[in-house]
Automatic annotation (TrEMBL):
Domain TonB-dependent receptor plug intervals: 45-163
Family: Belongs to the TonB-dependent receptor family.
Pfam families: Plug, TonB_dep_Rec_b-barrel
GO cellular component: cell outer membrane
Name assigned to this protein: Vitamin B12 transporter BtuB
Domain TonB-dependent receptor-like beta-barrel: 412-875
The gene coding this protein: btuB_6
């Protein structure tokens, strides 16, 4: 670790630490996330970070996504709503519309288990492999426990990277009404929230309590044009759009069209050829159209594009998509006796998200030759004045950014629910037990909004010549052209609909087994029975084809049952030294059984010092998508060589330049991903006003589920020889021949790092203060697809899916005096290597600068029944750091939403009235 950076972070706790005041604890047995044994709470053998309701309110957090962005152990990936706009990286992020995910350690959303009151939720109805954070009712949350260690030995699948347990408020009485507003200084991206909480009955006196929470919140849209840093055209910094799809169309080289496959100009001489032609470029006037610029051939080493214009489509992205959420929580508790409590709980939410990204880039080549501009059309663009051999008797092939089509829009509605009923209690004042039965579900439907067009009428509209792709500012389409475009719109067409469901019956018992010389020995045992179902309906099968719509293969309803048993024991070996062991066996109806152990220790040699450590094994079950997605067939892009036959006849193009079919889809033979992980560290309280912990950890995953493409199969055909299916004539491109790509169990990845947590408290003037910092240092992240290849190392480097910056922390300082309290917080992400896009002629992008922002808030509770909070987010209006990336395969043009908040300085206020 860089000790200078660590020392800087520790010092910051005194000026920007986090409030973590601990109320006096009742002496009662509690179940802490990561263990099924109820005991008197103490600093245990596992690293659990607790975030209280007060912390959440001081920071102005209204949804779970905002909270996870402030957790240092959470990955820096495309899991928030700003990062997943306009991208779809295979099945990793498929159908991610309106979905936000947790991603501890950067190991993927499907490797982080999200619980509500210690029990599972249904996965997102469309994504199908992770819980949607939008379904978490933050207004009803009492605290959040984050286990930063694997926990498959207790919870089963998905807990390789850790567990996030959202715990609801309980036993609430009275009425609480809250209103919240969060507005940006520069405009756009405002947030609003309102909630009402009501509860009746005192469990101790009345033996019953009922509670209800109703919440509504809105995230308003933020457009890229409203922020100067959202800019994909900064050529002096090596950033420029690599597209000739412009609002004023660029003609493209294609045999049989007006400019041919290539052309020459008098200025270029007899040898220089070009394959892009834009009238405005010839005139030196690309910038006459908003967002256009001269194509930067020097940056992209593309001399053939000398006479092209480019368009900064990334700088015109929607930075934050608009979202509306409505959530309801109802809970009833009845104390049957002092030893038995029964409860029922209902949680439901509706999320409406509108995903918008750039307008169509229409390319009139390949399968869309029919879209070429026709000879004799009223807007035919003759470039004979610039291209001597321009043939105006041939149609024009072009690339056009269809501004009239509008931003491509996908409207997704997600409904989730969970109903839980259960009992918990004690036996003989010694054994704690719990039983519960629950049903949960998530339904998501995405509908195409503005910006998408049906392929056939769009082709006919363009082929008619009545749509003008060469409009200048102030010009508009004719009435006839507009009518053709309007008739082609696919508004209201169902893109897809998905539904997941979960039925669960579980129970556990824990307590003291017997007294040993070093102390009591505790044990626990439990069971878990689940039935999981999923189905996915792809709209492309029920309507006419839509141009460039991201349809996915559908499959009929799939289901599986899971039966699990687990046990845990905590043994005091010596005074102050305890070993805990756990084991769980899961039996899946679709791929078999898996057994996962875990062992941990806690050693307290002296009162202010605890050493702790753990070793565990884990697994992640393949998702329904990965197992059962319908197989699709498509030709391999470009010409490829047969890896077996071409070396035998290297000059034979019939085997060295072929275009076979590729098949991709689900793989029912997939095995689970497996993991081995360990952590070791200590907790120390050297003074009454200070305590902290340091934990070194590592996670290694094997049999990673990975989606291969055909090129990867060919490159490593010896690893997957069965994937080369030869036809009746022995050829890959012969009758019956193909390349089997898709999902496989690939090789491994390893990540290792250090978690740091420090807490301080004391008295000052007439009040008290407390401060803290939670940070994570990534020493190593490396991965490989094939066991015979070298690892790719990504710690501190750029990646299009997950970033692994070396250091992240969140720090906070709070001072309280009487009814007043004030908080100053800091969020920091260290520098990392910048992208070096393929094709850039002059590489040399050193790094993306670190990101550091501050926030401040104040709370006053001196008015009877009222609590008032106001704050400033991003106090110094820090822009996101520059990155030489322009949207492709990761969101953001000149900035990265995985790291930074695009809203800038914002002011928020919360008013709470209680009676």
């Amino acid at each position: 670790m860089k000790f200078r950076l660590l020392a800087h972070a520790v010092a910051l706790t005194f000026v920007a630490g986090a409030a973590h005041a601990q109320d006096a604890q009742k002496v009662e047995r509690l179940e802490i996330t990561g263990s099924s044994i109820k005991r008197i709470q103490e600093e245990g053998s596992l690293p659990v970070q607790v975030i209280t309701r007060e912390d959440i309110q001081r920071r102005g957090i209204t949804n779970a996504e905002q909270l996870l962005m402030q957790i240092s152990a959470n990955g820096t990936g495309a899991d928030n709503l700003s990062s997943n706009v306009g991208i779809q990286l295979g099945t990793t992020d498929r159908n991610n519309n309106g979905n936000s995910s947790a991603n501890l350690r950067g190991l993927g959303a499907s490797n982080t288990l999200v619980l509500l009151n210690g029990r599972r939720l249904a996965t997102h109805g469309a994504k199908g492999n992770a819980v949607d954070l939008n379904s978490i009712p933050m207004s009803a949350i009492e605290r959040v426990e984050i286990l930063k260690d694997g926990a498959s030995a207790i919870y089963g699948t998905d807990a390789i990277a850790g567990v996030i347990n959202f715990i609801l408020r309980k036993d609430f009485t009275g009425v609480e009404i809250t209103g919240y507003g969060d507005v940006t200084e520069q405009g756009g991206g405002d947030r609003y929230n309102a909630s009402i909480t009501a509860g009746w009955g005192n469990l101790d006196k009345d033996r019953w309590n009922v509670m209800g929470v109703l919440t509504w919140d809105r995230q308003e849209i933020l457009n890229g044009v409203d922020r100067a840093f959202s800019n994909g055209y900064q050529p002096s910094r090596g950033l420029s759009p690599d597209t000739a799809g412009t609002p004023f169309a660029t003609q493209t080289g294609l045999a049989g069209t007006a400019i041919g496959a290539s052309f020459r100009t008098p200025a270029g001489g007899a040898t220089q050829t070009f394959n892009r032609a834009n009238l405005l470029s010839f005139q030196g006037n690309c910038g006459a159209v908003d967002g256009q610029s001269q194509y930067e051939t020097g940056i992209w080493n593309a001399p053939g594009f000398r006479y092209a214009c480019s368009y900064d489509y990334g700088g015109r992205e929607v930075l934050i998509q608009p979202v509306d959420r409505t959530q309801v929580v109802a809970r009833g508790t009845f104390k049957v006796s002092n030893e038995l409590t029964a409860f029922a709980e209902f949680v439901a939410s509706r999320t409406e998200a509108t995903k918008m990204f750039e307008e169509y880039q229409i390319t009139t080549t390949g399968d869309f030759l029919g879209m070429r501009y026709p000879v004799g059309g009223p807007f035919y663009q003759d470039l004979s004045a610039y291209i001597p051999l321009f043939n105006n008797q041939l149609p024009i092939a072009y690339r056009w950014r269809c501004m009239e089509c509008g931003l491509r829009t996908i409207e997704t509605t997600t409904d989730t629910y969970r109903f839980l009923a259960g009992v918990d209690g004690t036996l003989f004042n010694k054994w704690d037990y719990k039983f519960g039965v629950s049903t949960a579900g998530s339904e998501a439907e995405s509908v195409l909004g503005n910006g998408y067009m049906f392929t056939a009428p769009l082709t006919a509209a363009l082929a008619s010549g009545l749509v003008n792709p060469w409009l200048m500012p102030g010009q508009t389409q004719t009435a006839a052209g507009n009518a053709l475009l309007e008739a082609a719109r696919a508004n209201g067409t169902k893109l897809f609909a998905g539904e997941s469901s979960l039925i669960q019956f579980d129970g556990a018992i824990s307590g003291e087994l017997w007294q040993l010389p070093a102390g009591p020995m505790y044990g626990a045992a439990g069971f878990d029975y689940r039935k999981e179902t999923y189905k996915f309906d792809d709209g492309s099968r029920t309507t006419q084809p839509v141009y460039q719509a991201p349809f996915d293969p559908q499959f009929a309803k799939a289901e599986r049952t899971v039966k699990a048993f687990y046990a845990e024991v905590a043994v005091p070996v010596l005074k102050g030294f305890e070993i805990t062991g756990a084991i769980r066996h899961d039996d899946y109806s679709d791929f078999g059984g898996t057994t996962n152990p875990k062992v941990s220790f806690r050693w307290n040699p002296i009162e202010p010092l605890v050493f702790r450590g753990s070793y565990g094994e884990g697994f992640r079950a393949p998702s329904f998508f990965q197992l059962y997605t319908t197989t699709t067939v498509s030709p391999v892009p470009g010409n490829v060589a047969d890896p077996v036959l071409c070396p035998l006849s290297p000059n034979d193009l019939s085997v060295c330049a072929i275009r076979p079919d590729s098949r991709q889809g689900g793989n029912p033979d997939l095995k689970p991903e497996t993991s081995k992980q360990w952590s070791v560290g200590f907790v120390a309280a050297p003074t009454p006003w200070m305590n902290g912990s340091v934990d070194l950890w590592q996670v290694r995953r094997d049999d990673r589920i990975y989606e291969l493409n055909a090129q990867q199969v060919l490159a490593q055909y010896n690893t997957f020889p069965e994937a080369l299916v030869r036809g009746t004539n022995g050829r890959l491109d012969g009758p019956g021949g193909y390349i089997q790509a898709g999902f496989v169990n690939a090789a491994d990845d390893i990540t290792r790092g250090v978690d740091l947590s420090l807490r301080f408290q004391g008295k000052m003037f007439a009040g008290s203060w407390n401060a803290s910092i939670d940070g994570t240092y990534i020493e190593l992240y490396k991965s490989r697809v094939y066991i015979n290849l070298d690892y790719d190392s990504l710690a501190g480097a750029w990646s299009n899916r997950d970033l692994y910056p070396r250091w992240k922390h969140f720090a906070q300082f709070t001072y309280t005096q009487g009814p007043w309290s004030g908080t100053l917080y800091q969020q920091y992400t260290s520098s990392y290597g910048d992208q070096n896009p393929p094709g850039i002629a002059a590489a040399g992008f050193p790094s993306v600068d670190s990101y550091l922002i501050y926030g401040v808030s104040g709370t006053y509770s001196g008015f009877k029944n009222w609590v008032l909070t106001a704050g400033v987010r991003n106090l110094f209006d820090e822009d996101p750091p520059f990155t030489a990336h322009n949207l492709d395969f990761a969101a953001g043009a000149g900035w990265d939403p995985r790291v930074a908040d695009p809203r800038g300085r914002a002011y928020y206020a919360r008013v709470t009235f209680k009676f």
